Amino acid sequence: MLKITKLNKAYSNHRALTDVDLVVPKGVIFGLLGPNGAGKTTLIRIINQIIEQDSGSVEIDGKTLSPDDIRKIGYLPEERGLYKKMTVWDQLIYFARLKGLESSEAKQKVKSWLDKLEIAGWREKKVEDLSKGMAQKVQFISTVIHEPGLLILDEPFSGFDPVNAEIIKNEILELKAKGTTVILSTHRMESVELLCDHVAMINKSRKILDGTIREVKNSFRPEVFSVVLTQLSADLPYDWQVLKSEDGLFHFSLSLNGRTPNQALKELMEYGEVLEFKEQIPSMEEIFIHQVKGTSYE
Amino acid sequence: MNKIFLVIQREYLARVKKKSFLIATLLTPLIFPAIMGVFVWIAVSEKENQSLRIIEVIDETDLFFMESSEQYAFTSSVNDPEEAKKMVQQGERYGFLYIPKINLTNPKGIQYYGIENPSMSLMGYLESSLKRKIEDQRLYEKGIDPSILKEIRTQVSIQSVTLGESGEEKINDATVNYAIGFLAGILIYIFIFVYGNQIMQGVIEEKSSRIVEILVSSLKPFQLMMGKIVGIGAVGLTQFLIWVVLIGTLTTLVTGVLGMQMPQQQAMELASPEMAQATPDSSELADILMVIQGIDFVAIVVSFIIYFLGGYLLYGALFAAVGSAVDAPSDAQQFMFPITIPLIVAYMGLFVFVLQEPNSTTSFWLSVIPLTSPIAMMGRISYGVPFWELTLSIGLLILGFLFTTWLAGKIYRIGILMHGTKPTYKILWKWIRSSQ
């Protein structure tokens, strides 16, 4: 769907993107991660043709990005905005037509979306009279109204209460099922693990991580096992840090340090009864924090 | 192009649909006449309520007889100046005019005493009547009969006629031209400020509410900026045209009513020129009407539209650039300076040079330089401006707004995406020079 090659962008006082390569396959939800100021917004703005790259290329469906591709992309920026004095209806028609929809088509689509998200009763209300969650729904509709093949959502769940966040999540999954490619930029790692098929992480203008969730997690297996022992028969070595001991159960984590899991298990058996021996798979959150910290003093 | 049109449409409808637009459009043409009316009414009622002011006169030459007017009465009840001063102090007299024995060829030493500072009109009245009296007296001394004096006293008013190239004569009147130039110049000045500010507010609104990020993912920043400028300009033009129609209709109605009486009088004047001379007031009125009829209002309205659009586009782009550079209207002040100064120069120039001497060198330059020409040229237009000057001025104005639009576009497309930083002129310059 989207292929980005050697993308570079510098502002007068700092580099925003350095040689970023990225491939977003069709029909996936692609998590774009990275701390604030890493270059995510710049990348998104370049894909949206709001700003131009210094060098490198962006291809969509195998062709270099052109102004006509605006119709193919739907963009929900992190900082939302609507015209306060305009009615919901006028506003959505306006955004739809700016994306290139004909008037009749726009009307029909806006109507069906308002019905779908159950806010048809609000069509003649001005945005300033809406609640925040309601305005967010309107904003979401404005992003998807032209049925873009590529949807770029920057922190889509911020400002939603759990009920509405669920509605939006389901809409995203529904769009994905219809073949829409979604780029999801967020800090909320739980939604990344829940929704994303593929992630890439940007830090300090460079891509530092890229792959499916499983690949990323596998590459970050710290080779640490969590262990529960009982009936301790000997003193534990000092470097085994006991996390918790209660009711005769000892919880601790064990680094393999070059041993195979079986070797480690054998060793453990000499100290007591092994009740639990389980590899610690890192959460995306842990990977995120680890990566950002690890690259911050390069 | 289609997208610019959508933006124009939105900007236009969002403003024209507002009640405040309707109210401002309908009321403004009435406000100025209303203010004038209130002034006249106050002046008239003040005059009516004024009690007669009595002024004591001591005339040691025994030559002057001061004629009383509606406001002032003159008496001579005492001969001692000190006594007269006392009367003023005690409030028995409003003032005291003291005419010592003076040399008529060089009248000096005439004094006026009062508790209040005398008004300009009182001093003017005293001076002019004394002057006439002295002149009369001197002529009399030279042996001229006062009755002859009265006979030869005349009033002169010059009728100014301009000759067209093809020999047609047009009566004009500096006062009427002044009024038209004054109104048109001020109107352009107000229009540029009011609508320029609307552009700036609109840009700041889109920027601070972050709508702009969504908008520029759908269309180019330049399209957005131009759409906004043109849309708001169309609102201004609509307002102006409504005013022209309103005032046109009102004028036709008023002249229609006056017209019932006018033709007879004019016919009379035409039939007997002596009679017309005998009633100078009515002929003056007829002259002004002829002058007004002689003015090419279509040309003035057309050039107003041209200069309004040109000036508006020129300054509108700058207003848009300022709006894009700041986060809130309160930050805009520092960048307003380069916009306000030329406008104020043009405004001052209109009064100091253009309306006084429409064809002077300064007036020429003010009406040719694009930053000041919309206001200055409107001040000159009713006096008649050579065609080549008009062409030059409009041509430069077009170049001017192309330049400011280009400049503003460069600032705008970067400015609208910048948040939280307070830009300086140096940064703006960087934006202008950067390719992206």
Question: Helix and strand layout, with pairings?
Answer:
The complex is a heterodimer of chains A (298) and B (436).
Chain A (H helix, E strand, L loop, with lengths): L1 E9 L4 E10 L4 E5 L6 H8 L7 E6 L2 E2 L8 E4 L11 H11 L4 H14 L15 H13 L5 E5 L7 H16 L3 E5 L3 H7 L2 E6 L2 E7 H7 L4 E7 L10 E6 L2 E7 L5 H9 L3 E7 L4 H12 L3
Parallel strand pairs in A: 3-8, 3-9, 6-7, 7-8
Antiparallel strand pairs in A: 1-2, 1-4, 4-5, 9-10, 11-13, 11-14, 12-13
Chain B lengths: L1 H15 L2 H31 L3 E7 L12 E4 L5 H9 L5 E5 L11 E4 L5 H22 L4 H7 L7 E4 L5 E4 L1 H35 L2 H5 L5 H39 L2 H10 L1 H6 L1 H15 L2 H29 L7 H22 L6 H6 L6 H9 L5 H29 L9 H9 L3
Account of the 3D structure:
- The complex is a heterodimer of chains A (298) and B (436).
- Chain A has nine helices and 14 strands.
- Chain A has 298 residues and is an alpha/beta fold.
- A six-stranded mixed sheet of chain A has the order 6-7-8-3-9-10, with helices on both faces.
- Chain B has 17 helices and six strands.
- Chain B is elongated, with a radius of gyration of 30 Å.
- The model of chain B is unreliable at 262-280 (pLDDT under 50).
